[in-house]
Amino acid sequence: MFPSLINCTQIDWFHPWPENALIDVAKRFLADVQLPDEELTTKLAEHMSFVHLSVDDFNREFLLAERR
Q1: Cα–Cα distance list, 11 to 4, 6, 14, 64 (Å)
Q2: Which residues, in sequence order, are CB contacts of 22 under 8 Å at separation 6+?
Q3: What value, to the nearest 5°, has the Cα angle with vertex 53 and ends 7 and 22?
Q4: What is the pLDDT of residue 19?
Q5: Which residues contact 19 (CB under 8 A, 6 or more apart)?
Q6: What residues does each domain of the chain span?
Q7: pLDDT of 3-12, one tens digit each?
Q8: What are the b/e assignments for 43-63, b being 16+ CB within 10 Å?
């Protein structure tokens, strides 16, 4: 019906998340996975949060360096 509206629209879905919120979401997703102990689940959730935040930092650096 309105192809140009959909093809030419850019939506920024990415907003900064606090680390604690990312860890909580990761733990919720990991709840369905059988792991040997709770410590491993916590460490995996913290790592997932770290990766998400690192990608965000590198995206900002890329924007400043390349202007895109």
Answers
A1: 14, 10, 9, 20
A2: 48, 49, 52, 53
A3: 90
A4: 95
A5: 49, 53
A6: 15-66
A7: 655 666 666 6
A8: ebbeebbeeeeeeeeeeeeee
